[in-house]
Design goal:
Length: 198
């Protein structure tokens, strides 16, 4: 689900994973122990290991945020003169992702399906702002996810812009009050590009 990280940014994505990890880890066992197992007379008694609920919480965000780019049909019948479009199965570019997720949800029934349903429900609750505001608004500090400190980006930009006078090909005459600029020649501009490389 790298596309969700690119859409949200690393800080919001990591905060989403960190904030929902306790819920997606604790709700399925409690639901199994308190509801499913008593109703099934202790017949359903296992949950598969792994981050299935967290993956399905991300999949709910993917489903809601990312539109399909194209659709295609796998025809199951031939085209006749009475029908303009053949009958068949309609898929989109997101179908492969859903196919792999359904394989994960159906791999160890019924526990994996329970985890998938809990993850999808938590993901939809996040998307529709049903969860408490403190959980949804909370963010990991940017230095944890490799971000910059506040103001550091502007300071680097200022330093780069100050040193850009040489790279633009325009040099000011120092010592004159006229502020007249002189254009560098092409040869000097090329040499300035490679200066320091040798």
């Amino acid at each position: 689900m790298r596309i969700i990280e690119r859409l949200w940014g690393s800080q919001k994505f990591a905060s989403f994973l960190f904030a929902l990890y306790p819920a997606t880890t604790l709700i399925p066992p409690f639901l199994l122990a308190l509801v499913i197992r008593p109703l099934s007379f202790n017949f359903i008694n296992n949950l598969p290991a792994g981050p299935t609920p967290l993956i399905f919480a991300l999949l709910a965000q993917y489903h809601a945020s990312i539109p399909h780019v194209y659709k295609y049909r796998i025809a199951t019948s031939t085209l006749t003169s009475s029908r303009q479009t053949p009958e068949g199965l309609l898929f989109s570019d997101k179908s492969i992702t859903y196919l792999l997720a359904s394989q994960l949800a159906l791999s160890q029934l019924p526990g994996s399906l329970l985890e998938a349903a809990v993850g999808w429900g938590i993901g939809i609750a996040w998307r529709n702002d049903i969860l408490p505001e403190k959980i949804m608004g909370w963010r990991l500090p940017s230095w944890i996810v490799g971000g910059r400190k506040e103001g550091e980006g502007f300071e680097g930009l200022r330093r780069r812009l100050e040193g850009e006078g040489r790279a633009t090909g325009v040099e000011g005459r120092e010592g004159t009050n006229q502020g007249v600029t002189q254009r560098r020649g092409m040869g000097r501009a090329i040499l300035d590009q490679f200066r320091g490389a040798f």
